Amino acid sequence: xxxxxxxxxxxxxxxxxxxxxxxxxxxxxxxxxxxxxxxxxxxxxxxxxxxxxxxxxxxxxxxxxxxxxxxxxxxxxxxxxxxxxxxxxxxxxxxxxxxxxxxxxxxxxxxxxxxxxxxxxxxxxxxxxxxxxxxxxxxxxxxxxxxxxxxxxxxxxxxxxxxxxxxxxxxxxxxxxxxxxxxxxxxxxxxxxxxxxxxxxxxxxxxxxxxxxxxxxxxxxxxxxxxxxxxxxxxxxxxxxxxxxxxxxxxxxxxxxxxxxxxx
Amino acid sequence: xxxxxxxxxxxxxxxxxxxxxxxxxxxxxxxxxxxxxxxxxxxxxxxxxxxxxxxxxxxxxxxxxxxxxxxxxxxxxxxxxxxxxxxxxxxxxxxxxxxxxxxxxxxxxxxxxxxxxxxxxxxxxxxxxxxxxxxxxxxxxxxxxxxxxxxxxxxxxxxxxxxxxxxxxxxxxxxxxxxxxxxxxxxxxxxxxxxxxxxxxxxxxxxxxxxxxxxxxxxxxxxxxxxxxxxxxxxxxxxxxxxxxxxxxxxxxxxxxxxxxxxxxxxxxxxxxxxxxxxxxxxxxxxxxxxxxxxxxxxxxxxxxxxxxxxxxxxxxxxxxxxxxxxxxxxxxxxxxxxxxxxx
Lengths: 264, 344
Known about the structure:
The structure holds two protein chains of two kinds.
Chain A: H1 2-28, E1 30-32, E2 42-43, H2 46-54, H3 56-90, H4 96-108, H5 111-125, H6 131-155, H7 160-167, H8 172-200, H9 204-210, H10 217-226, H11 230-255, H12 258-261
Antiparallel strand pairs in A: 1-2
Chain B: E1 4-13, E2 16-26, E3 31-35, H1 42-50, E4 57-62, E5 65-66, E6 77-80, H2 92-103, H3 107-120, H4 136-148, E7 154-158, H5 166-183, E8 186-191, H6 194-200, E9 203-208, E10 211-216, H7 218-223, H8 228-233, E11 239-245, E12 248-251, E13 254-257, E14 267-271, E15 278-280, E16 290-299, E17 304-310, E18 313-319, E19 329-333, E20 340-341
Parallel strand pairs in B: 3-8, 3-9, 6-7, 7-8
Antiparallel strand pairs in B: 1-2, 1-4, 4-5, 9-10, 11-12, 11-14, 12-13, 14-20, 15-19, 16-17, 16-19, 17-18
Helix pairs in contact in B: 2-3, 2-4, 3-4
């Protein structure tokens, strides 16, 4: 019975994950596909030609923009979250619960409200329609996730490792660089990846704060979809998903939690 | 080389005093056990000596030099924790070489020192192993090697054997003793196990509730405890109240002649170790024997522990005699030379 379950598990996952992607693939290759039919009437590479040739410059620019924004957001998230999560995970202090609630706020409040509320301030501060502004608004969503991931890492972190390193002759700075960083690195990669993917898929906040001047892939994707050209939208979707998927594959071995378990 | 001097150490955690007015001098090459129940402040003292905690008051001197204000990495004292704390992202030899690397030793020197210490701690051939591939005993040996390779003036050990099972602990104990006497490293060894303290060290310092209660050779603490609390910690459960009169300690259990005539007429407390009481099962009336009834017994391997109820009180006896049973009538003799009368 269990053997059957195990044998069915992999195909089930493959179908659940693969089917939507397969549909995207089919759509991107459809030349004509109308309602009652389950299969396109005509196939062709028109959508892909559009993505790589006609709109190639636009897509490439958006891709670069997306990578830049997501990388910056991810780096800042991790750098800020690391000391914060360390304090939250290792020490007990007053107001810890309040901080936890405040951290979840941007996650539970709809992004639209956050972005709209921030927009006015960003205009005053001269951050609207700038790269820094977009990264800043992404940080409101990405930073809490990074803190939560690393908070968990540091709750399982034994600071005695650092005391041991000090006693063996390492200065505080070297302890951080050569003991703490390698120990939390798997968690750091996961946190950075979360922040990257979250920033990668931001649409509304980018649109509002970027004001259409910062065209990331999702912004371009929605614009193309709005025109009602579904094969093109499908092709752009694939272009959009692929880099994120590659990033995920790259760090998959850190996601298992096995390397995280070595911390204690 | 290293003599360690702790002067008047007082340590607080927040506002809570943990250790008060702690004084201890350890000679160069000596191995001293810091013994006490958990929560007595032993580890705290060790961390203060290592520089990982700051004392509220007091001074730490290594070879007469005050190191109280030096950071841990500048002190010639290395601490080994209860857990091995091997860095999981390094293999065995990288772990051992960590301190040498921090010190700036060349790769060549590091390799030679590591090879030497691997042999000394019987870890030959394990240098390239990953940490998680080692057994608990091997991990603890690597932790020991990682500290020893630095040849510190002072070695601080925080119950390094408590995570090992009994057989392994015995083996590790011998290893530590052998290396300690071979290298002559001044060692402060923290333990809550009184047997371990007696076996491992030249002197024992007993810490109860943050205060040093007695320092001395294992025999001194065992046979001549300074006060009832020390006696109780070493398993002396028999306490006898009495009065000093003309060279005799008069008690409900009978008079005991004593050598030192002091505190004439004063009330005193005395103790006698359970194994020092002689137990006979003959019922015939014998001079200077106390009649009693066995209340309960417990078999402890080499001996049997018996709780004996006498007309003047209950005494605990540890006897090699087997076949005792509850309700049995016995006679006890308390040799006067084994009675330890506490100073006032």
